[in-house]
Amino acid sequence: MIDKIEAHVGSKIITSYDIEMLNPAVYKQIIAIKDEKIKEEQLKAYKEQALNFLIDMYVMEIAAEKDGIRISDKDVDRAVNEIAASNKLSMADFEKTLAAQNLSLKQYRYQIKSQLILRSKINVPQIVITEEDIMNMADKKQDEFGLKDMYEISMITMQSKSDINKVISRIKKGASFEDEAKKYSLDTSASKGGYLGMQDATYMPLEMEKALKNTKEGSLTKPFKYEDKWAVCFLKKFKSKYEMDEAVREKIRAAIGEQLFNEAVEKWMKKSRDSVVVLRAADKFKVK
Q1: Residue 127 confidence class, pLDDT cut points 50, 70, 90
Q2: In what order do the strands lie in the sheet with 12-15?
Q3: What are the C-alpha distances in Å from 200 to residues 104, 172, 191, 203, 230?
Q4: What pLDDT sits at residue 224?
Q5: Which of 20, 24, 99, 187 has the greatest number of CB atoms lying within 10 Å of its CB?
Q6: Are 84 and 94 in contact (CB under 8 A)?
Q7: What is the pTM (predicted TM-score) of this model?
């Protein structure tokens, strides 16, 4: 059986059989592929992913045991059964649901065991989440939380910069922006007095966004290049992406907590990998 050993992880071994049986349904699908080149490529990818997965799981188990943390099969059974029950699924249906995601019950059990280990081991320090932390996370995951800068604007476009400057001059002397737009604007919004409504900064031309960022509510922007014309906007209202309700704030706080947890996990896993000897067959280690 020596040639069947794929890796030593501490005192544990991983065999070819362990890899094949990690997700037997997927393994059988790959073996059934008729095109030898495609089969070889997919088989190589499957084995590499499965081996790396098992190595990480074994490293985690060994490191946890060194720290006095032991998660039994009964603990895993209880957690899996609770999850299936919470989704109102029998275990047979639960396995089918996993299979639809290309997961075997064995893989899922490993994942649950790793979560139980990590939740027992990792203590995220209690910190005060500041407004700056919330804004930084809002910047990082604004699409996920549906956050965006919004501008309520009206716009006038003219053929040349000198033409747009004349319009700006008249407005500053008391002329109505709406009237100027209806009379002179080349934009399709002219009939509505140049009114464009609330606009998402994400989809604005860069020059327009830059001009609006430097403008206060109730003011005109500086003239800016707009496609092949020149334009000026009147900023009626600005809604910052940082203006969010409490429900979104709670989601962001949770995301910050999850990030801290993941950072702590990565730190612990790095330490664990350094403390557990891993020898792969691919590295041509010698078994004495």
Answers
A1: low
A2: 12-15, 5-9, 278-280
A3: 43, 27, 22, 6, 20
A4: 96
A5: 187
A6: yes
A7: 0.57
Compute the distance between CA of residue 238 and CA of residue 96 in angstroms, rounded to an integer.
50
- What single-letter amino acid sits at 90? S
Cα–Cα distance measured from residue 118 to residue 143, given in angstroms and rounded to the nearest whole number: 29
Instruction: Render 60-108 in DSSP notation, one character per residue.
Output: HHHHHHHTT----HHHHHHHHHHHHHHTT--HHHHHHHHHHTT--HHHH
What residue type is 201 in one-letter code?
A
Q: Three-state SS string across 258-271, please?
A: HHHHHHHHHHHHHH
122 versus 140: which is more confidently predicted? 140
Are 210 and 235 spatial neighbours (Cβ–Cβ below 8 Å)? Answer: no
**94-104 burial, b for 16+ CB within 10 Å, e for fewer?**
bbeebeeeebb
Q: Where on the phi/psi map is residue 160: left (φ > 0), alpha (ψ -120 to 50), or beta? A: beta
Instruction: Say whether pLDDT at 91 is over 90.
Output: yes
* Rg of the chain (C-alpha set): 30
Contact at 8 Å (CB) between 256 and 129? yes
Show Cβ contacts of residue 100 under 8 Å, excluding neighbours closer than 6 positions: none
Q: What is the residue-averaged pLDDT of the chain?
A: 90
Amino acid 288: pLDDT: 41
d(CA 247, CA 243): 12
Position 282 scores a pLDDT of 76
